C-alpha cells in the first residue's frame, strides 16, 4: 500500500513536491491547506498558473515577461532608451526596478552561458542584444549579471561581441563589485575583500 | 505601475504566495520555475489540484481522505477493528502508519476543539466517533491528539462522552508523553521533563 490514503492526494503532493525547494512534508501541508479552501479558490489558484503559462508573452524588444507585445518599461516615454542594462532573468529586472536608481531600459538574456549545464551563447538572447545595439544610437550597455564564473564568462563574451561592432563611443560597463553596504570587513569573504582593495576607487570627500 | 511586468504573473504569484509559509519572493521563484516547464506539465500540475478538490472523498467510517467510500485501512482484513486511534488530521494517520507500530483503525476528527478559533465539539467528527463505539464491540480508544491545551480539552471532552455510554470494558488510553527518544534531559523543556518524572513508569530491567 502507498504511503498516501488516496491516489489523488498522492498525485497532488508529487506535483507540488516537484517544485524547487519544496520537500514531501511541505508539499503535503500545502496540498491539505488547498483542500480546506473553497472549490472556487482552488479553481482560481490552478487557473492562475495555466493562464500564465498559456497567455504569457515576452516583450519583443527586451524579452522581459509582458502582457503586451512591448513591455511597460520599453514602452515608457520616461525611460532612457540609450542605456541598456543586461540581466539574466525577470527577477533581476524587478530587483533593479525596486532600487529606484535606474531609468534606462533592460535586456533579459533568459539565462547565462554555462557549459556545465549545456547553455551556450545561442541558447540565450545575445544575438538579439547585439542586433539591438547595431543600428540604434545606444550610448551605454551595463552588464548586470551574477558575480559568478558563469556571469564573468557571459560578460566577457558579450563584451567581445559588442567590441566587434566597432562602435566608437559605446560605453560598456559592469555593476560595481565590492563589500556590501552595511557589512563588517571581518565577515566579508576574502575574494570579495581582496578584489575590493585591488579595485579601489577615488574617495570623493 | 505595479512591481510586476505582467498582470498574469502578478496573479499567479499572489495565488502561490497565499499558501501558508510561502513568501512573495519564494512564490515568484516557484511561479517562474513553473513557467519554464512545458505547457503539458503545467496543465498536469494545475489539474492535480483541481482534480483532488473536486473528486476527493472521505472514508465514511474513519473520515480519512480516500478514493473510495471506505478507505484502505478500514477495508483491510488485516487491521484490528476493535481498536480505534483518534487523531486530529490526515497527516497524523500517515505519521502513525509510518511508525509501523499500529495495527488498529483510525478516526480522523478533522480538527480539535479550540474556542479561540471558534471550533466546538459539533464542528469536528466527535458525534460520529461516539456513534461508532456505541453499537460495536470496540475494546479500546487511543487518544492520539496534540499535547497542547486544545488537545487536552478535546481528550477530556471525548473521554466524558465515551464514559457516558456506560460501556464497561471499553479501555480509553492516550499516547505516552515524556522525553523524546534520543533527547538530552538538559535540552528538554521543563514542563515535559517535570511531567515525565511525575508520570514515571516501572522499569522493566
Summarize the structure.
By secondary structure, the first copy, chain A, is an alpha/beta fold. Chain A contains eight helices and six strands.
**How far apart, in Å, are the first and last alpha carbons of chain A?**
73 Å
CATH class of the largest domain in chain A: Alpha Beta
The strand count of chain A comes to 6
Note poorly predicted spans of chain A: none
pLDDT averaged residue by residue of chain A: 90
What string gives the helices and strands of chain A in order? Answer: HHHEEHEHEHEHEH
Largest interface: chains, residues each:
A-B, 60 and 60 residues
In quaternary terms, these chains amount to homodimer
Radius of gyration of chain A: 22 Å
The number of helical runs of chain A is 8
* Number of separate structural domains of chain A: 2
Tell me which CATH architecture of the largest domain in chain A applies here: 3-Layer(aba) Sandwich
Secondary structure: helix percent of chain A: 40-55%
CATH topology of the largest domain in chain A: Dna Topoisomerase Vi A Subunit, Chain: A, domain 2
Amino acid at each position: 500500500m502507498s504511503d498516501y490514503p488516496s491516489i489523488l492526494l498522492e498525485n497532488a503532493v508529487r506535483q507540488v513536491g516537484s517544485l524547487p525547494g519544496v520537500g514531501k512534508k511541505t508539499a503535503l501541508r500545502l496540498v491539505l491547506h488547498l483542500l480546506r479552501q473553497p472549490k472556487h479558490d482552488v479553481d482560481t489558484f490552478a487557473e492562475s498558473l495555466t493562464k500564465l503559462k498559456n497567455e504569457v508573452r515576452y516583450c519583443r524588444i527586451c524579452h522581459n515577461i509582458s502582457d503586451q507585445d512591448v513591455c511597460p518599461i520599453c514602452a515608457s516615454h520616461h525611460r532612457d532608451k540609450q542605456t541598456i542594462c543586461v540581466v539574466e532573468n525577470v527577477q533581476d529586472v524587478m530587483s533593479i526596478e525596486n532600487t529606484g536608481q535606474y531609468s534606462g531600459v533592460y535586456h533579459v538574456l533568459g539565462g547565462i552561458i554555462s557549459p556545465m549545464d549545456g547553455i551556450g551563447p545561442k541558447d540565450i538572447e545575445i544575438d538579439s542584444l547585439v542586433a539591438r545595439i547595431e543600428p540604434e544610437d545606444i550610448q551605454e550597455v551595463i552588464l548586470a549579471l551574477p558575480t559568478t564564473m558563469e556571469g564573468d564568462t557571459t560578460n566577457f563574451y558579450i563584451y567581445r561581441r559588442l567590441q566587434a561592432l566597432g562602435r566608437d563611443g559605446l560605453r560598456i560597463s559592469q555593476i560595481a563589485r565590492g563589500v556590501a553596504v552595511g557589512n563588517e570587513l571581518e565577515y566579508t569573504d576574502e575574494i570579495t575583500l581582496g578584489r575590493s582593495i585591488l579595485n579601489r576607487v577615488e574617495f570623493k570627500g
